[in-house]
Design a protein that fits this description.
The chain has helices spanning 14-25, 61-74, 136-139, 155-164, 184-192, 292-309; strands spanning 4-5, 7-10, 30-34, 78-81, 86-88, 94-97, 102-105, 108-110, 114-116, 132-133, 147-151, 170-174, 196-199, 202-208, 215-220, 226-230, 239-242, 246-248, 278-280. The strands form five sheets. A five-stranded parallel beta sheet has the order 4-3-2-8-19, with helices on one face. It is elongated. It is of the alpha/beta class and 314 residues long. The protein folds into two domains: 4-116 and 246-309, 3-Layer(bba) Sandwich (FAD/NAD(P)-binding domain), CATH 3.50.50.60; 125-242, FAD/NAD(P)-binding domain (3-Layer(bba) Sandwich). The chain is built from six helices and 19 strands.
Length: 314
């Protein structure tokens, strides 16, 4: 019979690590399961400026996460690297199964996060955090007075593009169709913005640069013509933001936990899902803002709810 933990946390991003810290400080028996590197999406962020009270100048995603990991371990959170393939969440003891192992816990906090839907062009991975971004709120400030390009045509793409005009000197939306998919009210604001431009019927095919993004090849899907877009020589680089959606990491929970139409887990304000003893925190759940600070807050709330559910005091 395997050990039964008070709480098992799936994911070691900001939400999962914050949950581990709070659960550990509550003297709960905690296991964090992470399939890859700690940090989730923030692990590819080269510099962070908007985490409240950060104490390190030039904070990076990996450095912030390293301290979060150390804190969770300091308060007794156990760790294992594994990929869960199957879950049994009903009943007093939850069972999580990988190919070789089985984990059992009285409570589960799902903090598996979400990943940005990739632009899909050659060289994209090479320039993540070096010109390519998927979060205007996170990275707009790094492109102040630079030229920036945005891939997408829906509500989020156009709204993020307008946000970027507060920082960049010029923002160009690259869209594979000849009209936007965003709501008309959003389009009206966009077309009135003097810093916003458009490349219609176009897709980004390839990125180039010496360590940072300096050029890209854009193809017109109607004519087949390929245009090379290069950074202004004085700038030395430009920004490329992908806003064609995010994908929650919730596939193994389909048909088990209540989700919205996009696959994000539904919770109440205290992170409870529809299954007793199962919580969701961070980017994986339905919410209006996905940032490190909101993920960490979700994780703390979920852990406190677990502790309260197991305490006679509350």
């Amino acid at each position: 019979m395997s050990e039964i933990y008070d709480v098992i946390i799936l994911g070691a991003g900001p939400a999962g690590l914050a949950a581990g810290l709070y659960a550990g400080r509550s003297r709960l028996n905690v296991l964090i399961i992470e399939k890859g590197q700690d940090g989730g999406q923030i692990a590819i962020t080269d510099e962070i400026e908007n985490y409240p009270g950060q104490i390190v100048e030039g904070e990076s995603g990996p450095s912030l996460i390293a301290r979060m990991t150390e804190q969770a371990e300091k308060f007794g959170a156990k760790r294992v690297s594994d990929m869960i393939k199957e879950v049994e969440l009903e009943g007093e003891v939850k069972v999580l199964k990988s190919e070789k192992n089985e984990y059992r816990g009285k409570n589960v906090i799902i903090a598996t996060g979400a990943h940005a839907r990739p632009i899909g062009c050659k060289g994209e991975g090479q320039f993540r955090g070096k010109g390519v971004s998927y979060c205007a709120t996170c990275d707009a400030n790094f492109f102040e007075d630079f030229e920036v390009y945005v891939v997408g045509g829906g509500d989020s793409a156009v709204e993020e593009a307008m946000y970027l005009t507060k920082f960049a000197r010029k923002v160009t939306i690259i869209h594979r169709r000849d009209e936007l998919r965003a709501a008309k009210s959003i389009q009206e604001k966009a077309f009135k913005n003097p810093k916003l431009f458009f490349m219609w019927d176009s897709v980004v095919e390839e990125l180039e640069g010496d360590d940072i993004l300096q050029a890209m090849y854009v193809k017109n899907v109607k004519t087949g013509e390929v245009t090379k877009v290069e950074a202004d020589p004085e700038d030395g680089m430009f920004g490329l933001f992908g806003f064609i959606g995010t994908v929650p990491n919730t596939k193994i929970f389909e048909g088990i936990i209540d989700m919205d139409e996009r696959g994000y887990i539904k919770t109440d304000a205290d992170m409870h899902t529809n299954i007793p003893g199962v919580y969701a925190a961070g980017d994986v759940r339905v919410k209006s803002l996905r940032q490190v600070v909101t993920a960490a807050a979700d994780g703390a709330i979920a852990a406190v709810q677990v502790e309260r559910s197991m305490s006679d005091y509350f």
